[in-house]
Design goal:
four-stranded antiparallel β-sheet; mainly beta
């Protein structure tokens, strides 16, 4: 009877340990983001691999497998809680050659059963078209209303601006076609960089983004 009790207790502790490990592994989030940035001078592509979560610190090694057979091996020797890798500024030819469509895998050691496997495509959403202000516009009023063409079949829409210390960002309804910038956000005689980003996701940790970037300068107060 005692032997059975000991075996049962050991089995219970083992099950509890495994359950705790699985729950902890659920705290690790992984995704792959590909994007297309459209400027007046050209279109450029980028990609980012992300690992986030408290239990990332317990991951000792990360293996990234690409569909073209290339691999990248990382060692988390200092116990980071988040790991982000990205490259940007590529032409589509370079982007397609280095990061083609197909199956991407992120394998974690020792938490290999929390690894990510996703079929990546280059089916980017429609690139936003900003109709006001025009790229390079000057004397733009401080009570600005940004306007753009309607976008269809997207899962997210975001507008952001930077300039003179400003960092402004807002998530918008996907059917929005304009945004009135709140009073006091813009300063006179200042150049701003404005981004409008459309996003789609396949629901399997693979996001695709298309961004339009323009520059404008406000007028006097």
């Amino acid at each position: 009877m005692r032997k059975f009790t000991v075996i049962f207790a050991l089995a219970f502790l083992l099950a509890l340990t495994l359950n705790n490990r699985i729950m902890a592994q659920d705290e690790i989030e992984m995704d792959i983001i590909m994007w297309k940035d459209a400027f007046s001078h050209g279109v450029y592509y980028g990609i980012e691999f992300n690992l986030e979560g408290n239990d990332v610190k317990n991951v000792r090694n990360v293996l990234i497998n690409l569909p073209n057979g290339k691999k990248m091996w990382l060692r988390n020797t200092i116990g980071l809680n988040g790991i982000g890798l990205e490259v940007w500024g590529m032409s589509y030819e370079e982007f397609n050659n280095r990061f083609p469509e197909g199956e991407y895998r992120i394998i974690l050691f020792p938490q290999w059963n929390k690894s990510l496997r996703v079929n990546v495509t280059h089916d980017f959403p429609q690139t936003p078209v900003i109709t006001y202000p025009a790229d390079g516009a000057t004397d733009v009023p401080l009570d600005l209303t940004v306007e753009w063409e309607s976008l269809g079949d997207i899962d997210g829409l975001c507008l952001s601006m930077e300039g003179a210390g400003l960092e402004f960002e807002i998530d918008l309804p996907t059917d929005a076609t304009s945004l009135a910038i709140p009073s006091g956000v813009l300063q006179p005689n200042t150049q701003y960089e404005l981004w409008l980003e459309a996003e789609i996701t396949d629901g399997r940790d693979n996001d695709l983004e298309s961004c339009r970037c323009i520059y404008f300068t406000t007028g006097a107060e």
